[in-house]
Amino acid sequence: MTINAEENSVEKKSLNFIEQIIEEEIKNGKNGGRILTRFPPEPNGYLHIGHAKSICLNFGLGIKYGGKTNLRFDDTNPVKEDTEYVDSIMEDVKWLGFEWESEPKYASDYFDKLYEFAVLLIKKGKAYVCEQSPEQMAEYKGTPTQAGKPSPWRERPVEENLRLFEGMKNGEFEEGKYMLRAKIDLASPNMHMRDPILYRIKKATHHRTGDKWCIYPMYDFAHGQSDYYEGITHSICTLEFEVHRPLYDWFLDQFVEPGAYRPRQIEFARLNLSYTVMSKRKLLRLVQEGFVTGWDDPRMPTISGYRRRGYTPESIRNFAERIGIAKRDNLIDVSLLEFSVREDLNKKAARVMGVINPLKVIITNYSDDSKEYLEAVNNPEDESMGTRKVSFSKELFIERDDFMEDAPKKFFRLSPGTEVRLRYAYFITCTNVVKDENGEIIEIHCTYDPASKGGVSPDGRKVKGTIHWVDAKNNLDAEVRLYDRLFLSEEPDDVVEGHDFTENLNPESLKIIRAKVESFLINAEAGQQFQFERIGYFCVDKDSKPDNIVFNRTVGLKDSWAKISGK
Ligand code: ATP
Ligand code: MG
């Protein structure tokens, strides 16, 4: 199923299934009406648009039901984690407009508690130190239809387990020599219940606990308990964790009284976007193998990439609201995200004129050394944004595409003998076309009607069209980065054996050109957003320097891909 903008134009929806659950619980007085959700990223990469959906959901529920939301870093794998990721995640959550409860939390805050709990399990005869290799373990685990066989170490005496586990903690053994496993049920149809690993030896430096630990808990062992320790009421996660739920419950059953408080896990469908890859592992490859310039490359589906590209937090939040919460996996059309961006920028972005493929126009009846400033509206959607003066003179640039020498009937722009309106300026009529020795058009000659100042018809006569322009004697030459979708195929992940998702990259996802824009843009600051009239939304890139202003194309004014894919 693909959801696109047209089908999804309903703004306010009824309650989603998670809200229904929560409202029912509040009615029944569960947890005394207390709501505490959390967003639990692993700090092993930058956040992407899928995470944004989870953030909007978790923080949104906190806000809607007068509760709170924790930010917790699930940092159980020191090898892949880094403070760079921690910092970027905090920046991104804040930028999206959300505030977490007090200080950020870390699964590593609970390493002592988790260790004690593991010792308790050993003492209860519910965990043991195992020496099987990964291959042996896989073999002994059986298959979903065939029960597993017990590891030869499954019945190791409690005292010996305690001693070995302590030795593991103290760094007495090599990595891989031992691991701690829960003793649950080798015949369970749920493979996660077949004596899962709780701890492995890792002699790695942790970004927060340094070299204190030589053993680290598995994600499954840390996650549910962390939620419990923090008093999380609703552990919202993606569908693939549904099969882990019995294991999380089993852990809590070992020390939580029946009927007492415990977090409730609710699963929802992860966001999949067309023309996009979302796995952090693949995004990391794009960065490491140089297909993009970094995690914040404006073509990346990361929050930092979108921010740099000019997407607004509101547009991402509106997108998350529009697509809603589903119980089954689906594929969302990326044009819906682009629609949300246009919708928001239409209200906010100041209009300017910029010519990205310039063609010189000479106004033959305009005096050589005159110039004037014409009034232009900054945003027709928002009067409070005021007006500005745009410089006009005898020589102008227009868009090459806005001129055709042999124009078909339906061409409503400039061609020999026709009259068009220069936005905010004058009516002009093309009188002559100048070409170079190769027949290439280099210049257009026009006359203007001084009585049409401001682009207003002096006598009720109509013109075919209105085009944008920039003063050729007074403008800014800027670098423009025309970004397009990073992948050519709708589901770039969907590759057959022997092929790689990188083969689906769009070779034209970035074109760098030079453009002529209104001269005042020399003072534009990184992050500022504009609509180049009739072209699209652009924002100033962080690479911008006083002697080279750089614009990123955020999104075109129209969905140019709709035509191509025949929608
Ligand atoms: P990836 O598969 O990209 O590595 P992950 O699930 O391993 O993602 P985490 O850092 O563990 O990444 O994710 C933090 C939270 O964001 C989790 O609760 C996870 O369920 C949620 N999340 C991750 N990807 C998506 C997605 N595509 N849609 C919705 N939620 C997501
Ligand atoms: Mg994960």
Could you provide a short overview of the structure?
The protein is α/β, with parallel strands linked by helices. The protein is 25% helix and 23% strand. It has 13 helices and 27 strands.
Can you describe what's shown?
The protein is an alpha/beta fold and 567 residues long. The chain folds into four domains: 1-103 and 218-273 and 310-348, HUPs (Rossmann fold); 114-216, Glutamyl-tRNA Synthetase, domain 3, CATH 3.90.800.10; 351-473, Ribosomal Protein L25, Chain P (Beta Barrel), CATH 2.40.240; 477-567, Beta Barrel (Ribosomal Protein L25, Chain P). Helix content is 25%, strand content 23%. It is built from 13 helices and 27 strands. A seven-stranded mixed β-sheet has the order 12-25-26-27-23-24-13. Strands 21-18-19-20-14-17-22 form a seven-stranded mixed β-sheet, with no helix packed on it. The protein has a four-stranded antiparallel β-sheet with strand order 5-6-7-8. Helix 2 packs across helix 11 (313-323), helix 7 (219-230) crosses helix 8 (245-253) and helix 11 (313-323) crosses helix 12. Mean pLDDT is 95; it is low at 1-10. It binds adenosine-5'-triphosphate and magnesium ion (MG).
CATH topology of the largest domain: Rossmann fold
Residues in β-strands, percent: 15-25%
The CATH homologous superfamily of the largest domain is termed: HUPs
Mean pLDDT over the residues? 95
Which word captures the global form?
A: elongated
Low-confidence stretches: 1-10
Number of domains: 4
Radius of gyration: 31 Å
**Total helix count?**
13
**What CATH first level of the largest domain would be assigned?**
Alpha Beta
Structural class: alpha/beta
Q: Give the name of the CATH architecture of the largest domain.
A: 3-Layer(aba) Sandwich
